[in-house]
Design brief:
alpha/beta, single chain
């Protein structure tokens, strides 16, 4: 879940078109020092990745390094091998910010605080072009690869008779589909086109669930929620947010995505 190119992303735009509480600030042990923020990360195409030398890049990385510079703190990016572990570690305060293309849901809001949204998303089912699935019922009795702990896992669990094949990350989920360990997979639309560009024999079958938004997760009561939101707002106001979207997801999509995020940020 590493870099989108401008070509092909218009299809994602079409799919998406058709398609936390106030509390007294709590300072965790990690926050007490004031000069270091532990950011827990998980690979996602276009959002966060490391090259062969371990150098990080991506939309989430750019947003948070900018926040750290503006807030005069040091952001320590630490990779966590499992998506669901990031949710647990952030809720406990072990991670001060979870950056992992985390969709905001009511269930997650019960244990986590969230920043303003920074990207729209919807879960889609991916298939081999030869299969022709068109609706959830077509997956009855079949194996569907999903990344453990994600919104996709919950949606697939809700399909009667479908069998979830749990994967550690998107690469593993796609490999399960490609090597025959699964007949389909469910994945975030925001990252799936990266893999479709690499595998011409795969295609989007249909969307699932409601449209959602990615946001940074923080421990409830974190002192970083307000300043992080202010930073995101300042990027939107200055136009820098749109430029970052263009950098990672193509100029043709940047204005649309920025407008979508701006509208969502106005909602309570």
């Amino acid at each position: 879940m590493n870099t989108h190119r401008r070509s092909g992303f218009g299809r994602l735009t079409a799919i998406m078109v058709c398609l936390a509480g106030i509390s007294t600030p709590v300072v965790t042990a990690q926050e007490a020092g004031g000069d270091r923020v532990r950011v827990c990360t998980f690979p996602a195409a276009g959002f966060f990745a490391r090259d062969g030398a371990g150098v990080a890049s991506g939309f989430e990385y750019d947003l948070l390094t900018g926040f750290a510079a503006a807030s005069k703190v040091n952001a320590a990016f630490e990779d966590v091998p499992q998506f669901d572990q990031i949710l647990k570690d952030t809720a406990s305060g072990k991670c001060q910010i979870g950056a992992a293309t985390i969709a905001v849901t009511e269930e997650r809001k019960a244990t986590l605080a969230f920043s303003n949204p920074y990207f729209p998303n919807r879960v889609v089912v991916v298939q081999k072009k030869s299969t022709g699935f068109a609706q959830p019922a077509d997956l009855t009795g079949l194996r569907v690869a999903v990344v453990k702990g994600t919104l996709s896992e919950g949606l697939v669990t809700g399909i009667s008779g479908a069998k979830s094949v749990l994967a550690e990350n998107d690469d593993a989920a796609f490999q399960a589909l490609l090597n025959g360990a699964a007949e389909a997979l469910a994945c975030d639309s925001a990252v799936v086109l990266h893999y479709l560009r690499l595998h011409s024999d795969l295609a989007i079958a249909f969307p699932m669930g409601d449209r959602s938004f990615f946001a940074f997760a923080l421990p409830r009561g974190s002192k970083f929620v307000a300043p992080l939101n202010e930073h995101l707002k300042s990027l939107q106001k200055s136009g820098a947010f749109t430029k970052l979207l263009a950098k990672h997801f193509g100029e043709a999509n940047a204005d649309f995505l920025a407008e979508d995020v701006a509208k969502a940020s106005l909602k309570p």
